[in-house]
Each structure stands twice: as C-alpha cells, then as structure tokens.
Design goal:
single chain, alpha+beta, Jelly Rolls, four-stranded antiparallel beta sheet, 13 strands, globular, binds 2-oxoglutaric acid
Amino acid sequence: MSRTPLSADQVAAFHRDGYVVCRGYFTSGEMARLIAHARGDDVLESRHLPITDAAGRLSKLTLWNDPGDDLYGMFSRCERVVGAMEQLLGGEVYHYHAKMMLKEPRVGGAWEWHQDYGYWYQNGCLLPDLASCMVAVDRATRANGCLQLLKGSQRMGRVEHGTFGTQTGADPERVSEAMKRFELIHFEAEAGDALFFHANTLHGSAPNTSEHPRWSLIMCYNTRANDPFKDSHHPRYTKLDIVPDAAILTR
Ligand SMILES: O=C(O)CCC(=O)C(=O)O
C-alpha cells in the first residue's frame, strides 16, 4: 500500500462533505484478528470510562494516547491509515489518541450531537486540523446505533458546546438549525469499513436498542503544524513510528 491510499475524489469528498466512507478498508483477515483480539481483551472491560447519555444509558469507551506495539497500535500506525490522514489534513500527522467504543446490546447509550473540536479546542489546538478514522468492528446498523453525521456541517466552524450527562454536546439550537440544512447520513457499515471525518463535522448516535453489539475502533490524529500550545490529557506533537500495512497480520 502506498502512502497515498486515497484517490483525489475521496480527498475532495472529505473537504466538501466533512467525511469520506471507504468500504472494505480493512480485509476480512485483518478484521478477524482485530475482533478476536478485542473480544478477548480484558483491558477494554476493566479500563473503560463509563459514559452516560442524557437519559443515563451507558456506553463504554476505552481510550489510550500512545499507539503502542499491540494490534490496535498496528492499525493506528499503519501506512494505510496514516497516509490517508496526511492526504486529508495536508501534512505530517501524529497520533492524538485512539479508542474502542463498545455499544453493548440493548444498553449502549446515545452520543449527543457534537464536534470533536468541541472537546479538542480546550486542549490548546489552535486550528481544527484534526480528523478521526472510525473502523466498524461489528456491523453497524440504525438498530444498533450507528454513527450519524451532518454532511457538510464542518463548514459551520466550531459551535459552542456544553455538558449533557457526562458528555459534551453542541449547542442544541445550532444543532436543530443544522438538521434543517445539512443532509443526515447514517454510517451503516460492515466490519472493516472505515469512515474518515473532520473534527468539525457534527456527529452523534442513537442508543443500541438491538440484540447486537456495535463496537468500533476510532483513531484520531492531529497535524504536526497544529501542535497544541499547552499541555492537556492528549499529547503534543510526538513523531509517529509508521509501520507497513502487513504488520496488522504479522505482529
Ligand atoms: O461511536 C459513537 O456512537 C460516537 C462516537 C463519537 O462520537 C466520538 O468518538 O466522537
């Protein structure tokens, strides 16, 4: 895989819409490894942050800053993801953090509408030059609370955010007006599909009311040029040790 895995059309779609969907970005063999690893990983259960929505429903999120040498690290350090991020953000990127989002059957909570930059602005990132790559670990459907986005909403710039439950959410008045203007997209996905989305793209999700889990791996990057001006709970620029894509299957 080259260090420019995305086509010019995909890069243009990201800039126009605030996101781009890449179907089958990871192979079934790569996903089988990730699923086996994650399902047997006690750390996801023991270290998760309990995130509740406004109705008190729980989502489990386990987050780490250092991409490390484990299988999650191979995903977030591989050329296919890092190269795509560099194409989308226009320069060298570093690992800002990654997380496994576990939305369990029947109990997994909603995510308030928000922009990631609503959170990250507070961390000293002067520009919204950050993006995330969400990889579906399980099939994601409307019933199990797939991610929803407002297409083109990154053009609104940063919206005021406040606290709802233990989550940060965007100003409800702005969200409700944005809903009238921007197309609502559901990221319904098969395992291995990837969604790259801009830090100012409004997104959220409904609760998981189904019998099926909705787990996903979300890897977030900042640009070197946007090195935060102060310390926070996420890192300042740290050189990323990129690995070949083959490392996902061989490590
Ligand atoms: O996975 C979800 O439902 C929401 C995740 C999300 O919004 C985020 O990580 O910023």
